[in-house]
From TrEMBL:
This is TetR/AcrR family transcriptional regulator. Keywords: DNA-binding. It comes from Agromyces aurantiacus. Residues 11-71 form the HTH tetR-type domain. PROSITE patterns: HTH_TETR_2. Gene3D superfamilies: Tetracycline Repressor, domain 2. Residues 34-53 bind DNA.
């Protein structure tokens, strides 16, 4: 008698593919990533990925939405029960949660690829809507002041650049890179850069 194979529910399979796509798009970028690479990373057939998502462009759009959803869920999960308006502790909590999330290079680089493709007629609107969702969440749910929103988003983009560029590695041998890290990042970010560089 042959053993029965366990079927994975469709929603779970979709999540599995989107997680694999996040890693693949993060590693290869939009241009070099393929539905075949995503399928191999997910351990399924390429025709199944195409049947479920259609084109590579649509797969990337769904991956970007998925990643933005993870970002928003991470922020919401870090919020305290009662959120006082303009509380800098809430800013710190969300910042630390963000740094932990983007230590996953697939998440970090998928977000960055999406934002860099802002002029693309299909991907650009999704990236802009996602960025505005983050803005609204910070303003309405985290109750950040306009100055806090500005600082948080600006610091987040700086963190993205430092992590994506591997500046943590450069800091070990370059005193200017080390000084840049010291003057622009918190202990949480320095720890993340250290882990990302290991």
């Amino acid at each position: 008698m042959t053993p029965r194979t366990t079927r994975i529910p469709a929603d779970e399979r979709r999540e599995q593919i989107l997680d694999a796509a996040t890693a693949v798009f993060g590693e290869y970028g939009y241009v070099a990533a393929t539905t075949d690479r995503v399928a191999r990373a997910a351990g399924i057939s390429q025709p199944y990925v195409v049947r479920l998502f259609g084109t590579k462009e649509q797969l990337f759009v769904e991956t970007l939405r998925h990643t933005l959803g993870r970002l928003l869920a991470t922020f919401r999960g870090a919020l305290p029960e009662a959120v006082p308006e303009g509380d800098v502790e809430v800013e710190r909590l969300l910042g630390a949660a963000y740094v932990r999330l983007v230590e996953d290079r697939g998440v970090l680089l998928t977000l960055m690829h999406g934002f860099l493709m802002g002029s693309d007629p299909v991907i650009g609107p999704v990236a802009r809507r996602g960025f505005l969702q983050v803005f609204r969440m910070l303003r309405d749910e985290a109750r950040f002041s306009p100055e806090q929103v500005h600082r948080f988003l600006a610091d987040g983009m700086l963190i993205n650049t430092l992590l994506a560029s591997g500046l943590g590695l450069a800091a070990k041998g370059d005193p200017d890179a080390a000084q840049l890290l010291d003057c622009t990042t918190s202990a949480d970010v320095l720890d993340a850069l250290e882990r990302a560089s290991a």
